Amino acid sequence: MAQVRTRAVKLLVSGVLVATASGTVAFSSMALWALEASTESSWVDPAGAQALVVPAGALSRVRLAAELHQATKLPILLSGAVDKRSRGDSSHMRDLFESGYDITPQWLEVRARTTEENAAYSSCLLHAKGIHVIVLVTDADHMLRAKLWHQYYGFQVLEAPSSFSRAATTLRDFFPSSSGYYRTYRFIHELGGLAEYFLKRVLGVRLTCKADFPIYPDRSQADWAGMTPRPNVAV
């Protein structure tokens, strides 16, 4: 009985220590660095690229994509579902490009809700236009999974990562915080996403192009007012 209690206490203490450590910026940043280690530390030379592809997400993606567009004049595809509850979808990113940088993205894909769907639906649009080499703009900790999915759907991917994790710089970073737990959640989320990718790759599972999902094609052909998803032309 004493041995059982001792083991139980050890397990409890270990659990508390792990839970505490996982909530610190110091621990979570190191975890994210493991994901970021496979990507470049700055945007690539986009020689040969045909388009910029930006999955819906953080503002840092907009800033980097705007810089790349201004430097290269490559057309921009924004990919991600319209969601009135969120300001992170592709339509709101479109607004940021136009209001903040006077840039109008060429295409807006508004159905994708996962990284795989970002890649699949982007391929439906861009491959039909002869575009196979892209500069992928996304967060550094998301780049590995996003790159794998876009390659899976036939793209040659040049990386343009943003939002690298910062190192622990203050004493506060070694104590649990909401920021630390969120970073750890992101790390676990990416690991789960990578596991899903490898499983689907082994099984050969792929999404297919459909004629009924909403894509706003070339900006000259689309009325972007309101951004309500609607059936569109086959791609």
From TrEMBL:
Q: Which domain of life is it from?
A: Bacteria
Q: Which CDD domains is this protein grouped with?
A: YdcF-like
Kindly give the InterPro entries that the UniProt entry links to this protein.
Cell_Envelope_Assoc, DUF218, Rossmann-like_a/b/a_fold
What are the UniProt keywords, alphabetically?
A: Membrane, Transmembrane, Transmembrane helix
**Gene Ontology CC, one term:** plasma membrane
Residue stretches spanning the membrane: 12-35
Query: Is Transmembrane helix among the key words of this record?
Result: yes
Q: Name one GO biological process term.
A: peptidoglycan metabolic process
Q: Which residues form the DUF218 domain?
A: 51-192
Q: What is this protein called?
A: YdcF family protein
